[in-house]
Write a structure and sequence with these properties.
The protein has two domains: 118 residues, Response regulator (Rossmann fold, 3-Layer(aba) Sandwich), CATH 3.40.50; 95 residues, Arc Repressor Mutant, subunit A (Orthogonal Bundle). The chain contains eight helices and eleven strands. The protein has a five-stranded parallel β-sheet, sandwiched between helices. The protein has a four-stranded antiparallel β-sheet with strand order 6-7-8-9, covered by helices on one side. Strands 10-11 form a two-stranded antiparallel ribbon. It binds calcium ion. Calcium ion binds next to loops.
């Protein structure tokens, strides 16, 4: 899962990037509104954390432009303690949730998980497909009642495929969830992760759709 963080405060941005990386996300950090607007127009994210007071373009303007393009990306805004007005404007402009500074990193991660889950149309916390159960919060995968230990990137590939069960994801779409902007993409990384997942779980879990991408069938269609 790839998250966009937009925050001009160096200390807070650094903490957000570190905290979200630790929670298993690939993180792009933009320090002004114009850069964020550009990133949102060109890259694919699972969610965005958006400060409102930003140089070059306000967070509200970034949000309005995003919504005018009909992008359904979940957005969590960060607002100052005393600015009820900002919160209302942010929610009116299309924010999905907000946190008041200073906030707890654990709460931010939990709210992002909830937003991403809701955006993908999955109401329950655990995802299930093909007898595999994945709990995003606990970073846990169960297969036939056994916990399967997966490295972060394999977990991220499985998470992306399970969130989109029944839909084909291209290699590029999976890569986008694994790497932050500017981070070097290892060649064949997706193929290697999928190979490992098939070996650790079971081969038929992930189907290869030649020339298109990969798919975990929706349980309803098995
Ligand atoms: Ca700010």
């Amino acid at each position: 899962m790839r998250i966009l963080v937009v925050e001009d405060d160096a200390l807070l941005g650094d903490a957000l990037q570190a905290g979200l990386k630790q929670a298993g996300y690939a993180v792009d950090w933009m320090k002004d509104g114009a850069a964020a607007d550009h990133a949102l127009g060109t890259e694919t994210y699972a969610a965005a954390v958006l400060d409102l007071g930003l140089p070059r373009m306000s967070g509200l303007e970034v949000l309005r432009r995003l919504r005018s393009r009909k992008v359904p990306l979940p957005v969590l805004i960060l607002t100052a303690m005393d600015s009820v007005d900002d919160r209302i404007k942010g929610l009116d402009a299309g924010a999905d949730d907000y946190l008041v500074k200073p906030f707890d990193m654990g709460e931010l991660a939990a709210r992002l998980r909830a937003l991403i889950r809701r955006a993908s149309g999955k109401a329950t916390a655990a995802l299930q497909a093909g007898g595999v159960e994945l709990e995003p919060a606990a970073h846990r995968v169960l297969y036939r009642g056994q916990a399967i230990d997966l490295p972060a990137k394999e977990f991220a590939v499985l998470h992306a495929l399970m969130l989109n069960a029944g839909k084909v994801l291209s290699r590029a779409q999976i890569e986008e969830q694994l790497y932050a902007w500017g981070e070097e993409v290892e060649s064949n990384a997706v193929e290697v992760h999928i190979h490992h997942l098939r070996r650790k779980l079971f081969p038929e879990l992930i189907a290869t759709i030649r020339g298109v991408g990969y798919l975990i069938p929706d349980d309803k269609n098995i």
